[in-house]
Design goal:
- The chain is α/β, with parallel strands linked by helices.
- The chain has a single domain, classed as Rossmann fold (3-Layer(aba) Sandwich).
- The chain contains eight helices and twelve strands.
- The strands form two sheets. A ten-stranded mixed sheet has the order 9-8-7-10-6-1-4-5-12-11, sandwiched between helices.
- Helix 3 crosses helix 4.
- The longest helix is centred in the N-terminal third of the chain and has 16 residues.
- The mean pLDDT is 91.
- The protein binds flavin-adenine dinucleotide.
- The site of flavin-adenine dinucleotide (FAD) has 29 residues, from helix 1, strand 4, helix 3, strand 6 and helix 4.
Length: 290
């Protein structure tokens, strides 16, 4: 048995380095101003897919990401770690999408891919933090979903069994395939880049990237088609532009404020019970907690 696995991966601003120009006036993220990284829980999702490929050699992992042109960086990152292929869903019409519009666009790309057994996404993206896209993609495709996955316990023809990590313990759940599972950060950490794969895929690029660079080795893409990263627009996936991007997003970001802690607001505490108690009382009194 082999499986066709789609891993949903998002390029996110490295929220550890958020500066004052992080947000644009229209409430959308100023992605150009922020270092971009592979969403951490999507690396856990990729690792679960790589684990399946080890158990079922011949299985295929395709990374799917919706984002601006530079999101191709995370497709390469996934290839360096063992994915087989990458698809970039990119079009100005996708910009400013909320989760409804994002999941619609992703589901249209999955429909175009047709033959898949399992979709694995991260539980949550560290920027939007909604944990909505995975379940919404499942709904749009009309297939089952299992969220908060910590480990894929067993797969057989048409069926998957996973361990879910919940606040109050673990749960073992089974589902028919195809299905969507979302993976927690408590799942196995993703294996690092593989040196051989780095050599193999270092020139992997989308058409747009190749056009914007004067490359004296353009002919290698004919000889090595696996270096050609697929790039799809709204038209390529047959999406309704009114359901994409800002126009397809009922969520309107009213106002976004950068919460940048000033030194005066921080307090250094020892681990003494007295000081911890005092802090807890203060946080309850000023309604920060409780
Ligand atoms: C500060 C902030 C607040 C926001 N609040 C809201 C809100 O309240 N409601 C709303 O609808 N939108 C909101 N958005 C917009 C939202 O971030 C985008 O719609 C985003 O594309 C998807 O939502 P998310 O980041 O919450 O992802 P989540 O739903 O947390 O992502 C879950 C998983 O889905 C997959 N995934 C998500 N986005 C992509 C992608 N572009 N490509 C491939 N896979 C993907 C990944 O595997 C990811 O781990 C907000 C954005 C920001 C920056």
């Amino acid at each position: 048995m082999t499986l066709n696995i789609i891993v949903l991966a998002k390029q996110v601003p490295d929220t550890r380095n958020v500066g004052k120009d992080a947000m644009k006036a229209d409430g959308t993220v100023n992605r150009a101003a922020l270092p971009a990284i592979f969403n951490p829980e999507d690396l856990n999702a990729l690792e679960q897919a790589l684990g399946i490929k080890e158990r079922f050699p011949g299985s295929k992992i395709t990374l799917l990401t919706m984002g601006p042109g530079r999101a191709a960086d995370i497709l390469r990152e996934g290839l360096f770690r063992g994915a087989d292929d990458g698809v970039l869903l990119t079009d100005r019409a996708f910009a400013g999408a909320d989760t409804l519009a994002t999941s619609y666009a992703l589901s249209m790309a999955v429909r175009k891919m047709k033959d898949f057994d399992l979709i694995i996404s991260g539980r949550q993206a560290i920027d939007g933090d909604t944990a909505q896209v995975g379940p919404q993609v499942a709904e749009k495709l009309g297939i089952p979903q299992i969220t908060y996955t910590e480990n894929i316990e067993h797969i057989e023809e048409g069926k998957i069994r996973v361990k879910r990590r919940l606040e109050n313990g673990v749960e073992i759940v089974e589902s028919p395939l195809p299905a969507v599972i979302t993976v927690n950060g408590s799942a196995r950490t993703c294996r690092p880049r593989n040196a051989k794969l780095l050599q193999k895929y270092k020139h992997a690029k989308t058409v747009t990237e190749r056009q914007s660079e004067d490359m004296d080795y353009i002919e290698i893409y004919d000889r090595r088609p696996y270096l050609d990263l697929t790039e799809w627009s709204v038209a390529d996936v047959g999406a309704d532009v009114a359901q994409c991007g800002l126009s397809g997003s009922p969520t309107k970001v009213k106002k976004i404020e950068n919460v940048v802690f000033q030194a005066k607001e921080s307090k250094r505490l020892s681990d003494s019970d007295v000081e911890i108690d005092e802090l807890m009382r203060e946080l309850i009194e000023n309604h920060t907690i409780g």
